[in-house]
Design a protein that fits this description.
mainly beta; DUF2158; five-stranded antiparallel β-sheet; single chain
Length: 56
């Protein structure tokens, strides 16, 4: 079972920008989306063990 749900705001455990969880894959990987400093949409796929829910 996935640790997060689609739309959850996440960050890498090591820090970095806030990202939005997209597709949650059965193998534990999460597609993450964020806007960079130029407001360009970025995407990366990371394993859920590398991520934590963002604190506001």
């Amino acid at each position: 079972m996935a640790k997060f749900t689609t739309g959850t705001i996440l960050v890498l455990k090591s820090g970095g920008p806030k990202m939005t969880a997209g597709i949650l894959k059965e193998d534990g990987y999460v597609n993450c989306f964020w806007f960079d400093h130029n407001q360009v949409l970025q995407e990366v796929t990371l394993h859920e063990d590398l991520l934590t829910e963002a604190v506001f």
